[in-house]
What we know:
alpha+beta
Amino acid sequence: SEEDDDGSFTDPPFLWIIKVDPNLDPATLSTMIDLVKDHREIILLGSNTNFGIGIKGGGWRGGQAGADVLETAAAGRLYNGDLDLVRRAHEARRERIVLETRLDADDGLNSLYLERLQRDALEDLYSGFDEDEEDSDDAQSVTRISIDSDQRNAIGSRGQFPPGMARWLYWCPLNHVAWDPNPPGENPRTNPNATSYGTFIPWKSPKACITAGLTVGASVGLAENDIPRFPHQSVVERIRYGPNATLYSSSNGNTLHKATNAANDTESDTGHCGLFNRTACLRMVEHPKMGALRSRTPTSAGMKGVVTQENNKPQAHIMMEQRAKDPKTRASMWKVLSHYFAITEDVATEMNNYVQQHFVDIVGDNLRGQCTRGHSCKISSKEELQRLLDVASEGKIGGVGTMNVAEEVDLDLEVSI
């Protein structure tokens, strides 16, 4: 938030809505509140009801997400944030471009990635205003011709957006860095390749969108039912190669629903989102070079790619351990991590030690949370988590197994960080 000269505040360009379990440990909740208390745009609340991309039908444009925040606040579970700011954003949801970005609790985003999304949205999504720019001797004047809400809704229902403007867009990071803590039992003092902070591995993912930073944007005038929502693993295929993405989309990956936009009932919708080039409907953001950070720890709901055994690491993990020995590579890595993700070597070391020391407890919490309201439900994860607990009960926690790295993600160790 920025304070104006008259002491009032200009609304920030985004809301960060953080949902925690209503039964979260009070000490942990107190720590979180202390971290965000100076930021009115960070909405911290107790709710297990999740909307958005590939999670639950509905979103901010349709009013479901905003209504949940307001109802949760009325129930006394708003722990931080400006409720009037939420109300204004909720009321203006049909009159403003809407961007919804997913960020899980154990991941992070590069601020430059978010700036890129906002620039794209302003350039390529319809804002509901016509601009007439005229040059003058001393300044450039901009006349904004407002379109009322009924006109906006009519535009959206007919699909008659201005040429070259997208009805909707998707974004996800092309490059990200993954953090693997040291597996249980690994000791940097006895393993010459191990570090005190775990391992950071750069990845390039051209064939599938990761969850961290996955964003969908909607032009003014586009109804909630006309915003396609896909699970992250099928975004690339469905938008770039699959059937008409606006005609049929999936909120849960299994069922299909037909959009209400009559203009999408023909295959003449080149680009599907309204753009001539269909591939432009999905922006796999290449710059910044590292758009997101993923933590591959036992907190992961899917447990995909989580290293849990010292002697069975993916080849990429071993290669990065070796590369991290090079002082130049190490200096470059920490420069990026500290500047864009606020992660220092001391912070990473502290978290690495914590995960190792509390590995069994974390696995147990993850298992108990599986398939409960508002949380992931994967049989493969439950089986793997239970196996880890069984091994731990036998006193063999240093010899547990590993999940395979996602096949759809291609390693590119040449990506500069």
